[in-house]
Specification:
Number of strands: 0
Radius of gyration: 16 Å
Oligomer: single chain
Helix content: 40-55%
Number of helices: 2
Length: 79
């Protein structure tokens, strides 16, 4: 039997509209017993698809090598 992947907790900032629509979609789909039923699974699946697209476009379809450096912290700069 395959093991469940290890999960990590992440803090990130999303646009308010994206957050509200994603939350509404997860609640609606979850209430119907369909997948993805949680915000975590919705974002996990969407991010996996986007990373696959970025690998094809920018990295010869190969995964990026892990980095040891930390991402910059704090709030993102205002646009």
């Amino acid at each position: 039997m395959a093991e469940k992947p290890t999960k990590v907790r992440a803090t990130l900032y999303l646009s308010r509209d994206l957050w509200h629509e994603a939350r509404a979609a997860a609640l609606d789909i979850g209430s119907q017993g369909k997948e993805p039923a949680t915000l975590s699974s919705l974002f996990d699946e969407a991010l996996a698809r986007e990373l696959a697209r970025l690998r094809r476009k920018h990295n010869g379809s190969r995964p990026w090598a892990p980095h040891r450096a930390r991402l910059p912290g704090g709030r993102p700069p205002s646009k």
